[in-house]
Amino acid sequence: MQNVTLFDRCVVDAGGLYRAFVTVQTEQSADGEPKETVLGYKLAEGESLLDAPPPIKRQPAVLEWHAQKQQCHTFTIEEYTALSLAIAAYVYPYRRYQEQVKAAIYTAESEAEIHAIKIDYGSVSAAA
Question: Whole-model pTM?
């Protein structure tokens, strides 16, 4: 075995749809012709190889947040989840109240009924 090289290839079917990502070993045969061997995979009928760069490994998202007048800092997934739940607990009661007021406005049948609608966000009890 001389001049052995490894290449990344994409296996596609006859219709050009992706099937697998493989490594191909190329070596020079005794008669000087290059010989390709797909490692760990057997091509099915109609499948072919395409040059393909290796998949890019995605970096995990950096979860950052900051309190008012403080610098951003990285949160763990548990801290970020707790923050998201706290935000939802605080915001959703106000959102539901706003939807109730909007529904009252849309169902009002006169200007007097619209003016009679009291909007008081102070009456909303959100989780602190």
Answer: 0.45
